[in-house]
Structure formats: C-alpha cells, structure tokens
Amino acid sequence: MARRNSDDRNGAVTIADVAKTAGVSPMTVSNVINDHPYVRQATREKVLAAMAQLGYRVNVAARNLRSGRTGTIGLAIPEIDRPYYGQLAAAIMAAAAGSGLRVVVEQTRSQRENELEALALSRNRLYDGLLLSTVGLGPADTKLLKVDYPVVLLGERIFGGPVDHVAMPNVDGARAATAHLLERGCRRIALIDSGHDGDVDVSQLRFAGYRAALDDAGVGLDPDLLFEIDAFTMEAGARIARHIAASALAVDGVFCITDTVGVGVLRGFADAGVAVPCQVKVIGFDNVDSSAYTVPSLSSVDPDHGFMAKSAVELLVKRIAKAADPGRPQDVVSTFAVVARESTAACTTHSH
Description:
It is a single chain. The protein is α/β, with parallel strands linked by helices and 352 residues long. It is 39% helix and 15% strand. It folds into three domains: 15-58, 434 Repressor (Amino-terminal Domain); 71-168 and 305-321, Rossmann fold, CATH 3.40.50.2300; 170-302 and 338-344, Rossmann fold (3-Layer(aba) Sandwich).
C-alpha cells in the first residue's frame, strides 16, 4: 500500500485506516496515540507498526487545540555546562517523562534579563508550564512572577513568593559539611564562596550554616579564612587553593561552596604540593557525579537531586492540571546527606 501523508487533504490516512490495518478499534488507536496506560504492549506495538506502515502522523496542532496543552514544559537554568545543572536537568527530564511531558531547556547565563525573557515568552513558546532556576531575579521581583501560566521556582533567591518553590537545604547542609570537617579534627576551616553582602543567595545561606557549625563547636569565626570568588569555577577554586598554600594561615580544612569549586581546590593543592587529606581536608556541596572520580575523591553534601526534580515536576503538573483547589504556593526543601570520601578521610601512612 502506498504511504499517504495525513497532512494531505486528499486521501489523508485516518485513525480508522490505522485501526483497520492493525485489526483493532479506532478507540484503541486513539488510546495508543494519547499514550493511555492501560493498552497492552502487544496491542500498542501492532498499532504503532500500522501507523508506520501507513505513514500516519498525529496532528499535534489539532490535538493541542482540543486539549489546550502541548505536553511540553520549559526548564530555564543558568548554565548548561555546569555539572550541577546538567545533573539536575537530567533528573528533571526523567521525572517529566514519567508524567508524559517533554522538557525544553533554556540557558539564562544567570542574567536577570534572560530570566525575565524566559518568564515573558514561555506562553508564546507553547510551554504548559515553566521550571525557572533564579539567580538574577531576587526578592524585589516577586510581582513579576504573577503570570497566567504555571511556574515553579528552583533556587535560593526567592522564598515566600506567589509560585511554588523547590530549594536545597543550604543552611543545614553547609552546617553538616562544616561539622564533618570539625569531627575529622579540623579547626582552621576556610570557606570559599562568593561573599555575604546583598540579597539572600546560596553564599549567604551556606555561610550561615558554616558559621553555625563553628559556633556549635566553640570555634571562633576567623575573617582571614573567608575567601571570595567571582564565579563558581574550577579555575577560581584552584587559584584560592594555591593562595592558601602560599600563605601562613595554617588551614587544615576547606569547605567549598560547590563541588565544581572543590575540584579546582584539589587541583590547586596538588599543584602546590599540599597533600589532601593529610595536610588539609576538603569538602564540597552538590555531590555531582564527577566528585566520586577525582583523586582524591571529593567529599560532598548530596542535596538529593532526584527528590528536587520529582518535587518540582509534581508541583508543576498539579498546577497544569488546574486542580479545583490547588492550595497556596508551597516552599519545598530537599533532604540531604553528607557523602564522606577520600578528601576528608583520616590520614594514613604507608610503608614502601
């Protein structure tokens, strides 16, 4: 049989044609097209084979007009090439697939205008909803989040806004990371972050946790052990580590604001001939996959990416479904665990 394109007005392949070829009812074909969960696998494969044989194409535009949905959500993140965001995006895609949704990823480069563009144009891009990781937008911008489609925020900049929000356990996680270093005997613990002035952000929150752990242990805060970086990069981490190695600060522990910075710190100490963990112990935050493969492997705080992704998608799906009583916006904070690896291990000596 010659293939017929369902977009052609004359002789277009219909659901009835597919049903006849597959030996099933038109309703069964419709259920397969709409990914109905109760269609037997053998039946689904038979219908898909008939669709391929006849060249049947789903009229997505017409279906979207009927349902008012596209089955696509947007994910706007600061940087695609950062391990943390790549890992989070993959987890969100997996969670979205479980709800029958596709994800389109946009990169905002941490710039306020790009985050605003993502908010303003998501409706035009035919997203059913948007997951937005905010870095540029802050507490003063909450009124801009009142848009006419579902939005869920990811990140640490805006709390208590008009939309659902999923955040990391920044304070508690940083407190636990610093406590881990203290438990391993460290007392001169450096903090590498981006400073503590201005609006609440990741650095502010993780600094609060770092300071709380020092207070818990009766260890005074030493301003000389606070190191600011302009970007959360390996290069910045390596530069600070080399600076610490060349100084007389007697640092015996380092808490890095992210694992990306932590990997750079390991490189910088290696370049300077400083042994980790024997001379200084290092811990990061985010538990990106590569942290288990550095030498030494990097201890880290695992903020449970799977939980964050699942929570964000579930919240967005509920808003998309327009439940009768969706309730007030929710703030969800993920669970966490300290993952101890070689970079904070007890120092052992080996005879040769």
